[in-house]
Request: fold
Amino acid sequence: MIWSAFKLSLRVVSLATLLVGVTGTAFGFLLAKREFRAKELLDSVLTLPMVLPPTVTGYYLILLLGRRGWLGRYIYRMTGWSVAFTWEAAVIAATVMAFPIMVKSARAAIGSVDSRYEMVSFSLGKGEFETFFRVTLPLAIRGLVAGLVLSFARALGEFGATLMLAGNIPGKTQTMPLAIYEAFISGDDREAQFLAVILTVTSVAVIYLTNLLSHSGDRA
Amino acid sequence: MLSVNFQKEFRNGGGRSFKLDVAFTVNHALTVLFGPSGSGKTTILRSIAGVVVPDSGKIALGDRVYFDSSARLNVPMRHREVGFVFQDSLLFPHLTAEANVLYGMKSGKDREKRKRVQELLDLFGILHTLERFPRELSGGEQQRVALARALASQPALVLLDEPLSAVDVSTRSRLLQEIVEMQRRSNIPFIHVTHNATDAVRAGDWVLILDQGRIVQEGLPLEVFNSPHSVRLARAVGTENIFAGTVLSQSGDDGISLLDLKACQLAVSFNGLAPGTPATIGIRAEDIIVCRERITQTSARNLLQGIVKTMIPDGSKMELVVDCGVDFKVSITRQAVMSLSLQPGAVVYLLIKASACHTLS
Reply:
């Protein structure tokens, strides 16, 4: 049970971090560098999962993606598959919960890049795409990596929304935080302790690595 | 030839607005855009480059139209081929000098591009910076790399936004000379925004003077700076003494009029103003000669007795305020201060040529 929870968490969290990294950076860029109406409204909506109780977010996800959900019913009708109570649901829950942190970090990191660097790039004949990858991204990379690490941590600790959307099926949707809960409830203290230690060590390692990275970045 | 004609209104809080309304053509190799801060210089450059979109008008370089509101045409910045150099070099901090210059180069073989970068950096005398990062370069080196980067992209036009203002004094004039050389060599028009009159005179083929969003005067640099048309402009170009008075008398054909400043009178060289009309004149602080004795045999038409009120060091110069009934600001070298043993309270005589008094409208 421990081993399967660990493996599942690893898979769920890496996928969620990847998804969050791409989408969060894209929305962060939009919010930092583009002017449009209802920008702050969009920011508020994107931040919602950070302030809502996770179970409420999970409930909304069921309303959206469940077999009879607004979107889920069409997926079910077309493919006969529903996301609820699958390991993919854990990925979705973790992604949605970590997303606001990434958007906030990316908006701050990309917003702090002097837009005149981008102006110089345009004046040198480069388009938006090339400018983003060759100028904006490298200059914002430290803030973005910091955002990724926080998102990773948030995804790793995700509990409420996962429980709602993916359930708690050992070996299938039971991630480490859920496994700790179950072990504790069923009186298996040793297992709970062991999992807690793994999570703690992983967290410390991640923070340590980020610090290393950001300090080596001082010279760049 | 670059022709610029556009309007742009900026609104800021409290119903205040700033309107930029300019029309000029650039026929000259190195054109200086001069004006006090807030006059709209940078906005003009940014409109030409395509960063700022004007409300209306047309901007074209030869037959290449950059912007035309009537045709709803606005060519994006990256297709304008405009080299832009800012006051802080804005070299990409994560790239070496070489990679910075390479960044904007058009397609070509890698080896040839690298060779071209080396040639350019060598021209600026900074080949040693090739593999260094921007933070390892001095201010002057950074600006040279930035210039090389702009030129390497083979622009049709180069815009310089106060490129010398962050560079130390000793490098300043050499860099200015290099800019002139680069312009001559590349043979593309340069527009240089500055608020430094000396730079404008030293390295400008033509000067456009901007004030409150409009071009108020243009001409050859020396002409413009020696005879500004208005009081605001005189302040902008550094004419330190501005006096308002009334014309007392006008003597026949000699072109000299007497101007009454209440506390003293000045012989000035202008015609056509009837006695009794108000007039404003400007005198540059450098154009006034200070003597310790009363000199009578001189071509200068004005000899005023006064007392040194204050002395303020200004680099190698000293700025004196001399009370002759009205206060004159006078700029002389520190050496002159020493040899005349000037100090506050000293009695001095000011010599001012009639032709150094410029009429301001």
